[in-house]
Amino acid sequence: MMGQLAAEKDVESLQQIGGRSRCCLDAFLVTSVIFLFVSVAAVAAVVVMERLPPPTSNSEITGELPSCKRHNFAYLQATESRLQNCTMLFAERLRDESCSVGDDFRFNEDHSSLTPQREGNYFVFVKVNLTCVHKCPAGLLRLDVGGKMSCELRLPDKADTALVSKQCWTVQRLGTEGLQTDMTVFSEGQQDNYRLDNWRLELETSGWGMFLVGTDDRTL
What we know:
Blueprint: H1 2-51, H2 58-62, E1 73-78, E2 86-87, E3 90-92, E4 105-108, E5 113-116, E6 120-132, E7 139-145, E8 149-155, E9 163-174, E10 181-187, E11 199-201, E12 207-214
Antiparallel strand pairs: 1-3, 1-12, 2-10, 4-5, 6-9, 6-11, 6-12, 7-8, 7-10
């Protein structure tokens, strides 16, 4: 009788251990899939940022409203090259008869804000390129996208025109509120700590954007 009870307890123990192992394995598989998905999205974003074409003035010449074929994608290009504490100014990036803000977004040019039209998980990215025009001070540049992502770039003390670049990205759950990008600067060893004289943003290759990667019910 005692042997039978011990055998039953051993079976129950093995079942509990097996159940825990399956739970750990399931959690590991889910984590691995999420990591793989985010990695693929990161690669896609880098490719998109690298292949963004230069702007053109065709739409400005014709005065026609450009069509947006990439509904789930939006990209804004910086329009002010000076570094200062401010809410950054952006514009849509136009090429031929296409625009860089898809139909699933709304861009408010007056406030330089970008608003997703539906809730979901978004890949948000920032790309900045800066040039030193003459004897630039060392400092720190920080960009904050609507409190959802912060991107920092430490600037060296330079006297040449070498390009300094930084790319940042994150995946965030977003609602339908407008997002603005705030710039904060800090210079080292200068009386005015909030200026980075002679550093300039390269406007054609600096900007930020996002694209929808998934919603509650499905992944794109």
